[in-house]
Amino acid sequence: MDQESIVYGCIKDIAPTAAESERIRVNRDAMLSLPRAEEWPFLSQEMFSIPTAESAFYNYQTEVMHFGASYKAVEYEWDQWIAQFESLLSKMYWVSATVHLETELSGTHTFTWEAESGYHKPGSGDMRVRCEWSHEGSLSI
Q: What is the helix (H) or strand (E) element at residue 24, kind and residue range?
């Protein structure tokens, strides 16, 4: 049986006002620049909830862009997945991002990125990441 890995999470930004709608356009364009799922990339357009121009007016204080996908043992190529995710983040406006990696053998890992200066501006490079690991269940002998 193949090892399945589940990756899901969200990217959070401030809910922009009408004057700040450029933020949504930039974030939308960054996600639409990802390859399509049929190309079998680590990150694809289809795994993201891509915001529309109107979505700025539906959120209270936070713009939430969620994502998720199922992979075959992606933890063995996790460095590449992280590199592509950070490349996407580098092109976006955001306050924080969280990625959950659920694996059958290694438990659950949670990665959190936070902008160093309140929010990340595309190309600024001001991000730091933190990882937490948890594992539930007992070992069978």
A: helix 22-32
For 78-114, the pLDDT digits (tens) are 999 999 999 999 999 999 999 999 998 888 889 999 8
**Residue scoring higher pLDDT (76 or 57):** 76
- When divided into structural domains, the chain yields a total of 1
3-state secondary structure at position 75: helix
Residue 140 in any domain: the answer is: no
DSSP code, position 13: E
Sheet with 127-134, edge to edge strand ranges: 62-72, 4-14, 96-103, 107-115, 127-134
User: d(Cα 86, Cα 1) in Å, to the nearest integer?
Assistant: 31
> Does pTM surpass 0.85?
yes
